[in-house]
Write a structure and sequence with these properties.
39% of the residues lie in helices and 7% in strands. It is mainly alpha-helical. The chain is globular. It binds a DNA duplex through residues 8-10, 27-29, 32, 37-50, 52, 59, 62-65, 69-75, 81. GO terms for molecular function: methyltransferase activity.
Length: 114
DNA sequence: GCGTTGACCCTCC
DNA sequence: AGGAGGGCCAACG
């Protein structure tokens, strides 16, 4: 995360989201904690709403704490988010990612504190 | 500048 | 164990 001061909340969310490795997923709360705004998890989703138009931000790799595809409704197609996840080797059933904890990627743990 | 809104999360019945 | 409700905080109108 370069220059946190000059980057607003949205851009910081983008930076973290872009660093999610292929085949891994994370949660809104994890990103929020990494940004130091543990109570602003809703804003993470709000920010991703603007980033979904950006093709450089893999917003489909961000789920809620239960591994549920809560934001699938904001994608172009209803099942686009699920198909993107399935194309990365994930297993989605009933809008919920299977084996979520195993594929979970915590930026605080993986990237460490900024 | 105030009131509403939300791709969430935690706590309490 | 499961559901309902409140809290948070930044962006939007």
């Amino acid at each position: 995360m370069p220059k946190p001061e000059t980057l607003n909340f949205f851009n910081r969310v983008y930076e973290v989201t872009k660093r999610i490795p292929y085949g891994r997923v994370t949660s809104y709360g994890a990103i929020a904690r990494y940004l130091g705004a543990a109570r602003s998890s809703r804003m993470v989703g709000y920010a991703l709403n603007g980033s979904v138009n950006r093709d450089d931000v893999p917003a489909h790799r961000v789920l809620n704490r239960n591994g549920l595809l809560t934001g699938k409704h904001h994608f172009s197609g209803t099942n686009l988010m699920q198909q993107l996840l399935e194309s990365e080797g994930h297993e989605v059933k009933e809008d919920k990612l299977q084996n979520f904890e195993d594929k979970f990627w915590d930026p605080v743990t993986e990237l460490g504190f900024s």
